[in-house]
Specification:
- The radius of gyration is 28 Å and the shape is globular.
- It is mostly helical and 430 residues long.
- The protein has 13 helices and no strands.
- The longest helix is centred in the last third of the chain and has 51 residues.
- Helices cover 72% and strands 0% of the residues.
- Helix 4 crosses helix 9, helix 7 runs antiparallel to helix 12 and helix 11 packs across helix 12.
């Protein structure tokens, strides 16, 4: 899972959450039935295929090839592609941040500028490729709009906050901490729903939320014990803010879908407005020009940013296709494994301080997110069956009552006819 759409959009940058199954990014995003489902990419948290359309509608690139394969082969190919492209995307993201921090040719604040530009690059790539997909694959008019403009400010604000805060946090915290915190959309979603809607959750959801909180405490404790002098709570505040924005995002998206907007329409316009907002801010404070000079001086950074932009869209597209073809439970399991792989690669490829608290915290957070997502999805099936069973029982009871009533009517009619016959016979005798 970064095109920001529901269930899977960071690309570890950022993805999806809602109470109805349909994760996370500005992107083609997926909005999954539970906040824990969505990919942690801001761009990948948004959007979901319209299930009312035909299976070929919005199927995306490579759909014809996948249709020709056995489902098992489809699963293997999509899983491999998701792990490959997300792995490349995440490794590239951390490599860019480290390169900016250690490069002698860049200024002292280039790392902060670079983390801001990561979100801008992702937004630009998702906007460009989703527009091409809408015009050439979905055969929709590029900037045709169903939803009114007034429906987009909240969505744009959430996407902007999700992407910007998430990437800016990398100036203060390490990559594994960001990945774990981005997986915790369940907690703010439950808090918001409890305060605003007075909602009461299932007991397993409260247990999972407590497990996530405990895992986050262990992660923060690990960061502090390894390097207390460089520990900065600013990064934790920034990444937490991005998670809160992700928790609000699905509700804003759902309004647009109810108004008849397609997945690609929401993707294109939400990223368009976010692109304009980011462009205005980076132009105003000079960040865009300063970073353009950095890329002109260091072609490696320019190459990395170009690859990062393309991989953001490809990786989230693989995730969305996987969700569409094999369902949310499969996607949740694979996404949890992918995040674990991301943490392992981060420690192996980019040496950093290690503590077993990281391992214990990751198990608590990722395990709780996976359990919450799977339970949320599986409980829908029994509910549907229960309703079907109740309907069937009620129908049979009603049918039995009708049959009994009909039998009584027939008996009464027979008795009446018999009486008429006897009276007729008596008249004849007389």
């Amino acid at each position: 899972m970064s095109p920001r759409i529901e269930e899977e959009r960071d690309i570890e940058l950022g993805g999806s959450s809602s109470h109805d199954e349909e994760e996370t990014i500005r992107q083609p995003l997926i909005k999954e039935g539970n906040p824990a489902d969505a990919d942690d990419s801001p761009s990948a948290e948004i959007i979901v295929e319209d299930t009312k359309k035909s299976s070929k509608s919005g199927a995306g690139f490579g759909s014809a090839f996948l249709e020709s394969l056995h489902p098992t082969q489809q699963m293997i190919i999509l899983s491999f592609a998701m792990f490959l492209f997300f792995g490349m995307h995440n490794v590239l993201q951390e490599a860019i941040v480290n390169l900016l921090a250690n490069s002698s040719s860049t200024s002292s604040n280039s790392k902060a500028d670079g983390t801001i530009m990561l979100g801008f690059a992702e937004c630009t790539g998702v906007l460009f490729f989703s527009y091409l997909e809408r015009v050439h694959v979905a055969k929709e008019r590029g900037f045709h709009r169903v939803a009114p403009l007034k429906a987009y400010p909240l969505l744009t604000l959430c996407l902007f906050a999700s992407s910007s805060l998430c990437n800016m946090s990398l100036s203060y915290i390490n990559f594994p901490t960001k990945v774990v915190f981005r997986s915790c959309k369940l907690v703010p979603t439950m808090i918001i729903a409890t305060i605003v809607n007075k909602r009461i959750f299932a007991s397993y959801e409260y247990v999972c939320a407590l497990s996530i909180c405990a895992g986050l405490v262990l992660f923060v404790l690990a960061d502090y014990t390894l390097n207390p002098m460089k520990f900065d709570a600013t990064g934790l505040a920034l990444v937490s803010g991005s998670v809160v924005a992700d928790a609000i995002l699905p509700n804003a998206q759902e309004r647009l879908f109810r108004q008849g907007s397609s997945r690609l329409e929401v993707t294109v316009f939400s990223n368009l407005f976010t692109f304009l907002a980011m462009g205005f801010i980076t132009l105003s404070n000079g960040t865009l020009f300063k970073f353009a000079k950095v890329m002109a001086q260091d072609h490696t950074i320019a190459l990395y940013f170009g690859l990062y932009t393309v991989l953001s869209y490809i990786s989230i597209s693989c995730y969305m296709t996987l969700v569409k073809r094999f369902g949310g439970v499969t996607a949740v399991l694979l996404t949890t494994a992918r995040k674990a792989m991301t943490l392992v690669l981060s420690f192996l490829l980019f040496p950093k301080g290690f503590s077993w608290l990281y391992v214990h915290g990751s198990l608590l957070v990722l395990g709780a997110c996976m359990v919450a997502s799977i339970f949320k999805k599986l409980e829908k099936v029994p509910l549907h069956r229960k309703r079907s069973s109740e309907y069937s029982i009620n129908y049979r009871d009603k049918a039995a009552e009708d049959l009994e009533s009909s039998s009584q009517s027939d008996d009464q009619l027979s008795a009446d006819n018999s009486g008429v016959t006897r009276r007729g016979a008596a008249v004849q005798v007389v």
